[in-house]
Amino acid sequence: xxxxxxxxxxKYFTLATLLGLSHPSFAEVATPGSYRxxxxxxxxxxxxxxxxxxxxxxxxxxxxxxxxxxxxQPAKLDVSIKTASIDTNHEKRDAxxxxxxxxxxxxxxxxxFSADKVSYDKQGQPxxxxxxxSLHGKTRPVSFVITPVGAGKDPWGGYRVGFNASTTLKxxxxxxxxxxxxxxxxxxxxxxxxxxxx
Length: 198
Prior knowledge:
Distance between the termini: 55 Å
Number of domains: 1
CATH superfamily: Lipid/polyisoprenoid-binding, YceI-like
């Protein structure tokens, strides 16, 4: 083993400490409590196959909701998304997606997800979320895989948490059957949520 000076050893451990502190495993664990979703910093993304040659992606820009983060209490999470807020960065396509061929936003202006069961890890962080999604006049059971992003005080004296949640849906189960084959059956959905403690 080569000889190292006292200065080089000190630099090594300083660097190792900094890298360790920045590693996700050292991130603050979210504290239990009631939270309200920050709509300005939360988004719903989706991805679906187009003609079997590419993935078409989009988002919903209008989301609100609240949840209780506490493994000692019954699950409580409600999320509402306005279907007319769909955004695929293509005006003509977005108008078609809002039509009766797809989301039919005039008849079904809101999609709603309510959780009835949450699984937690040993640190008290959610790992899976089970509930029901109401969309396009249909209600189906849906499960999300949860990934904690971070938690801590914000610059205004509040406390915030962040989670990503993902799942895969079959659009036909929600009565969306337009252009089968050309448009994929499975839709990948990701919720990027930032919430403030109440």
